[in-house]
Amino acid sequence: MKRTRLFAPLIGTLLAGCLQAKPLAGDVKMNAFIDGLMNRMTLEEKIGQLNLLSVGFTATGPQLNQDVESQIKHGLAGGVFNVYRPAAVRKLQSLAVHQTRLGIPLLFGFDVIHGYKTIFPVPLALSCTWSPAAIERSARVAADEATADGVNWTFSSMVDLCRDPRWGRIVEGAGEDPYLGARIASAMVRGYQGEDLSRSNALLACVKHFALYGAVEAGRDYNTVDMSRHRMYQYYLPPYRAAVEAGAGSVMTSFNDINGLPATGDHWLVTDVLRKQWGFQGFVVSDYEAISEMTAWGMGDLSKDAELALRAGVDMDMVSEAYLKCLPELVSRGEIPVSLVNQACRRILEAKYKLGLFSDPYRGCTEERARAEILTPQNRRVARELAEQSCVLLKNDGPLLPLKKSGIIALVGPLAEDQSNLLGSWRAGGDWRLAVSVAAGISNVAGATVSVLHAQGANLIDDPALRATLRAFGEYLPVDRRSPQETLKQAVAVAKRADVVVAVLGESAGMSGEAASRSRLGLPQGQENLLRALVKTGKPVVLVLMNGRPLTLTWEAAHCGAILETWFGGTEAGNAIADVLFGDYNPSGKLTATFPRDVGQIPIYYNHQNTGRPYRNDPGFKYVSRYLDVSNDPLYPFGYGLSYTTFAFGGVQLSRTNLTADETLLASVGVTNTGQRAGSETVQLYLSQPEAGMARGVEDLRGFQKVYLQPGETKTVTFRITPDDLKFYNENLQYDWEPGEFIIRIGDNSSQVKSASVRWQKRI
Ligand code: BGC
Q1: What is d(CA 549, CA 164) in angstroms, rounded to the nearest whole number?
Q2: Among protein residues, the one whose CA lies closest to atom 10 of ligand 1
Q3: 552 CA from centroid of ligand 1 (Å)
Q4: Does ligand 1 come within 6 angstroms of the Cβ of 427?
Q5: Is the peptide bond before 512 cis (omega within 30 degrees of 0)?
Q6: Is 579 touching ligand 1 by the criterion CB < 6 Å?
Q7: Within 13 Å, how many C-alpha atoms sit on residue 273's CB side?
Q8: For labelling alongside 603, which of 25, 67, 442, 745 has CA 20 to 30 A away?
Q9: What is the rounded radius of gyration, in angstroms, for the C-alpha atoms of the chain?
Q10: In angstroms, rounded to a whole number, what is the distance separating the alpha carbons of residues 394 and 557?
Q11: From the CA of 83, how far away is ligand 1's center (Å)?
């Protein structure tokens, strides 16, 4: 066993080497083409390819500036980003193709994060569908639309695992679990890139932010990361690796440092792990000015930054122009071998070649194609379905939901009629005027049979300083000029006249996303006051939440009849929310990030270790791993989400209880719909190993299946478990399994499982 452990990485490296040594026929052609091209390129032209320019944009679209045009004409750009629309793209591309010496086409990058013009729910919401296939579909639609408008490269998918909801960018990822995160990461890459990158509707994916950005200390954006290698390999790195293995053509480095070295200057990370261990063949781009930011990290001046990044393996410099300004001299002084510039340039040219840009630099983008393919009814339908599937029903006493399509509804709250915030952060080419508000959705779905009374009740944000910061960056934050008391009073009066109150509350879009860390995770104060006043009326209150992160909802959970988490649902949010509220869609979303009771519990995540003094919910035990003032349990655990029906799980049936080496175990459970409506349940498989050479997490997700059941129907769900599912990174960072006892846990969320135990031996 020792021998395998020692040689496994070496064999991997040799294998990767062999694969590289024997290029495929297409690669031979590509290499010959690029050799020919590079033989004609000057050093400056090669360095130009390593430069990525940002183009400013206004509310109505991209704005091209003179300097960008002149840089392109002088061969000083390998790509630009934030340029879209066929006319704008064609204009710049034709400068590159017709007005530079060698006519090398540009990459056109854009943050197409959750849709291009048809905006899907934010990524954290999408992950709550637990449906990689549906998420792949959303990425495909985004790619169809973005490429029709001239974009050929998206800065997605964002796969940063996150256990800290203070970090605003948790909204951009798939939550806290490496297994689910990896499944979603590869689905997105497949969706964007398709089978063949040279197709005119394929969008080059960019996995970001490499690496560990979701683990920034204290949840504060751009902050430091200090992490053991074991934790990286076991939890944080798998989603990046899965995206790379799915064929992602590019990777973006992150803003954070890792154990003292900024990721953008970290050779071990960008070359040893990414390229040598994982066999990544594409190109690496820095994040926005992340190269020049290394000066503030304390790594030296711009020239040192450029050297550090290039040597680490960063091929393209986003915005900081460190390569453009410093590499010519560094190379001419012999401080950097020209081979490093050649290598980076080659990788970028390869991506362009694979995208087919040398055959058709415009990739067929035209106004006609854009008109035909963007925001089609079909695309909007997919967005509506995904928005329905990503809603998570957190509470439903009574049951209060679904609502009847009759009677009087008081629709209250600053997000009830909002069309802008519901697009969330990163809205690409999305137009908020085309988005469906909750108010509009209710009228579309319930029509004239319900009567709806409206009241804003509170401002989204009352804090003038926060409002000013968010507005300065384009946030739409209308303010009711009446006093808070007056606004609230009107809402209470409206509530009193209604049969039920639907309060649509939450964050503004800019309160999550980049540079949007929060230290308190409750509803903004004015909204909280409103909710308390509404509850006090004694009317049943349905809380509909829009937000980009887990919130602390302890009071809300105790006092509202029903809580529906809708995140930011995108263009079709209002229709989808109304579908769920009135029961046209039976909610099926499951949380992918733990909801804490209190900020003091953070980081809080389901796959934590047990400690030597495991928590007991018993005041008689003081000397255990616990808080004195709050329980260790989350408010809502990972994997949690209710339905309008109920499901009962039978016991876990195992095909055997003693296994050897590479045998396969079948673990089954019968799931019955015990309620009155058809619905889907996500059956989740967790594994744990009570005894091993290293302390393991209390459980790890290893599989999930969705089943759709009619009332009274039972289906048996079976998981195939092989030794691969038992593997973990041991203390030598080798990925292997250890024989012994394993607990197979199956349930409808991470803390509600049925279990059975097996023993698995290695062959002697
Ligand atoms: C973000 C990236 C994004 C880039 C380009 C950066 O500030 O961190 O996620 O892709 O800007 O817009």
Answers
A1: 9
A2: 155
A3: 28
A4: no
A5: no
A6: no
A7: 19
A8: 745
A9: 27
A10: 8
A11: 14
Q: Which residue's alpha carbon is nearest to atom 8 within ligand 1?
A: 287
Nearest CA residue ID for atom 5, ligand 1: 288
Q: Once rounded to an integer, what is the mean pLDDT over residues 122-151?
A: 98
Beta strands in 101-142 (DSSP E): 107-110
Burial 57-89 (b: 16+ CB within 10 A, else e): beeeebebeeebbebbeebbbbbbbbbbbbebb
CATH number for 647-761 (one of 2.60.40.10, 1.10.443.10, 1.25.10.10, 3.30.497.10): it is 2.60.40.10
Residue 757 pLDDT greater than 70, yes or no: yes
Q: How far is the CA of 336 from the centre of ligand 1 (A)?
A: 28
Spatial contact of 643 and 679, defined as CB atoms under 8 Å apart: yes
Determine the atom of ligand 1 nearest the C-alpha atom of 209. 9
Cβ atoms 270, 253 nearer than 8 A = yes
pTM: 0.96
Q: Which amino acid is it at 2?
A: K
Structural domain boundaries in the chain? 34-110+337-375, 387-601, 647-761
Q: Is 633 a catalytic residue?
A: no
Quote the Cα angle for 71-143-512, to 5°: 80
Strands 51-54, 79-81: pairing kind: parallel
Using the CB atoms, write b or e for 139-148: b if 16+ within 10 Å: bbbbbbbbbb
More confident residue, 189 or 10: 189
**Per-residue pLDDT tens digits for 680-690:** 999 999 999 99
Q: Which of 762, 754, 684 lies closest to 726 in space, CA to CA?
A: 762
Catalytic: which of 149, 287, 315, 725? 287
Task: Tell which one of 155, 250, 316 to mutate to probe ligand 1, the residue whose CB is within 8 A of the most ligand atoms.
Answer: 155
Question: 387-601, superfamily in CATH?
Answer: Glycoside hydrolase family 3 C-terminal domain (3.40.50.1700)
97 to each of 86, 152, 203, 394, 480, how far by Cα in Å? 16, 16, 20, 54, 52
Q: Please state the φ and ψ torsions of residue 592, each to the nearest 5 degrees.
A: -115, 5
The finding on whether 288 has its CB within 6 A of some atom of ligand 1 is yes
pLDDT tens across 288-307, in order? 999 999 999 999 999 999 99
Region of residue 504 (left: phi > 0; alpha: psi -120 to 50; beta: else): beta
What's the DSSP call for residue 456? -
Please provide the average confidence, as pLDDT, over all residues in the chain.
Answer: 95
How many A from CA of 82 to the centre of ligand 1?
11
* Closest of 611, 680, 733 to residue 277, by C-alpha: 733
Separation of CA 252 and ligand 1 centre (Å): 9
Q: Does any ligand 1 atom lie closer than 6 A to the CB of residue 729?
A: no
pLDDT tens track for 414-437: 999 999 999 999 999 999 999 999
pLDDT at 19: 44
Going by CA atoms, what residue is nearest to atom 7 of ligand 1? 288
Give the model confidence (pLDDT) of 55-73 as tens digits: 876 555 566 566 899 999 9
